[in-house]
């Protein structure tokens, strides 16, 4: 995504109209935005792979600036802050930014009027404003948190999230909410269990997937619809899904926390087996998650392959390394022998761990940060390949957001447990 400093025909015409009759021109254009929706996508002559995307913001009162942050823009720095700032149209309260964007991607963004422009501002997201002209929004209304609406854009040639569409005339599974008490958590942890349609307690045991960030997988990523559709289309066998709530202490739980991993593998899964007909064969069990959840799924698979034989890792946060790495000190000689200076921390752990019977599905967005996300994911993938692990790896056409993780949850399940003809 590149900011384009050349005025589009739309902006030129709008400025001319404002010069002639500002009030009329603004009112007409705001009505146009209400009907058309924000942003405005315009083709580029003789360039079929890209379009110009213009994002508008109208302020009811005068403001000094509008900052735009998108996960597919470079990380905000003092050097590139101009790329993140919208431009003001004449002396009006209408602001805009035009960007050159690939036609096959999806992206989200947020707007911050009157921003302090302090790069590491902790208060920034309190000043975030919803884009009232964009009809496409992801809504995050997590328990105990304030509601957030994130606008997003589907470019003209972006792929549909086929597996997430709710179908009326197919059998559907059910979700049951439980509370699990463990030695690790002070208070009970919410777990939602997805049971496939036709679940039978006395049938042969069911395979299962355990997902961290369970609330988001249900309410934002539409995991229930994906499972219903995959099972109805006979892409995967009927499975049980264990959707683990990690809202309260997410950064602690999902930072390769041995206590959390042990609680899931040694307490939670046996506790659920007492209530549901789950397979005890690791080949039929998947641990999965996105971002920090993908990092932790990889770590938990390595540490508890006696429970999980498959890892589904979506945009794993492999930039992570412990702040106090005692392991590094203890294993300095081994690391020098087995690791290169290019290895991320997770690759080091994989090399130091005995090879275990695990299959992997991994993915990363083409618009994610290259150094922090893409390169580290490829580093982990290449490390696994070099040690003989089975790894299916996929690039999806979005960024580090929730626009593709629901769809790629489905492709990951097909990869790991799908019927042979449907695998990647």
DSSP strand tally: 18
Task: Identify low-pLDDT runs.
Answer: 328-339
CATH superfamily of the largest domain: Alpha/Beta hydrolase fold, catalytic domain
User: Which term fits the overall shape?
Assistant: elongated
User: What's the domain count?
Assistant: 2
Summarize the amount of helix as a percent range.
25-40%
General description of the model:
By secondary structure, the protein is an alpha/beta fold. The chain folds into two domains: 153 residues, Immunoglobulins (Immunoglobulin-like, Sandwich), CATH 2.60.40.10; 261 residues, 3-Layer(aba) Sandwich (Rossmann fold). Helices cover 30% and strands 24% of the residues. An eight-stranded mixed β-sheet has the order 11-12-14-13-15-16-17-18, with helices on both faces. Strands 1, 2, 3, 5 and 6 form a five-stranded antiparallel β-sheet that branches. The chain starts with a strand and ends in a 7-residue tail after the last helix.
């Amino acid at each position: 995504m590149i900011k384009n400093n050349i005025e589009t025909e739309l902006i030129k015409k709008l400025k001319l109209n404002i010069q002639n009759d500002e009030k009329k021109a603004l009112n007409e254009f705001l009505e146009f935005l209400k009907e058309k929706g924000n942003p405005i996508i315009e083709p580029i002559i003789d360039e079929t792979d890209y379009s110009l995307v213009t994002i508008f913001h109208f302020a009811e009162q005068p403001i000094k600036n509008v900052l735009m942050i998108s996960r597919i823009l470079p990380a905000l720095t003092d050097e590139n802050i101009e790329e993140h700032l919208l431009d003001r149209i004449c002396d009006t309260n209408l602001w805009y930014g035009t960007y050159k964007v690939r036609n096959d991607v999806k992206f989200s963004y947020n707007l911050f009027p009157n921003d302090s422009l302090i790069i590491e501002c902790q208060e920034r997201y309190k000043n975030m404003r919803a884009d009232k002209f964009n009809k496409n929004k992801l809504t995050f209304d997590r328990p105990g948190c304030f509601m957030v609406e994130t606008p997003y854009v589907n470019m003209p040639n972006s792929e549909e999230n086929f597996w997430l569409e709710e179908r009326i005339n197919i059998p559907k599974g059910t979700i049951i909410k439980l509370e699990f008490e463990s030695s690790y958590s002070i208070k009970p942890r919410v777990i939602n269990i997805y049971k496939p349609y036709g679940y039978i307690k006395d049938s042969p045991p069911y395979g299962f997937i355990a997902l961290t960030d369970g609330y988001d997988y249900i309410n934002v990523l539409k995991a229930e619809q994906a499972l219903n559709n995959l099972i109805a289309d006979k892409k995967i066998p009927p499975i049980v899904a264990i959707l683990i709530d990690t809202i309260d202490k997410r950064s602690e739980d999902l930072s390769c926390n041995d206590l959390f991993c042990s609680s899931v593998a040694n307490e939670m899964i046996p506790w659920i087996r007492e209530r549901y007909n789950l397979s005890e064969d690791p080949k039929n069990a998947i641990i999965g998650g996105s971002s920090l959840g993908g990092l932790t799924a990889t770590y938990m698979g390595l540490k508890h392959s006696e429970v999980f034989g498959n890892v589904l890792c979506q945009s794993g946060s492999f930039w992570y390394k412990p702040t106090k790495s005692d392991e590094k000190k203890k294993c300095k000689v081994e690391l020098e022998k087995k690791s290169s200076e290019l290895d991320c921390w997770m690759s080091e752990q994989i090399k130091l761990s005995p090879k275990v019977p695990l299959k992997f599905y991994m993915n990363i967005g083409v618009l994610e940060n290259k150094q922090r996300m893409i390169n580290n994911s490829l580093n982990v993938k290449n490390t696994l390949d070099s040690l003989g692990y089975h790894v299916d790896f996929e690039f999806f056409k979005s960024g580090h957001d929730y626009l593709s993780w629901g769809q790629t949850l489905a492709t990951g399940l097909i990869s790991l447990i799908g019927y042979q003809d449907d695998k990647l």
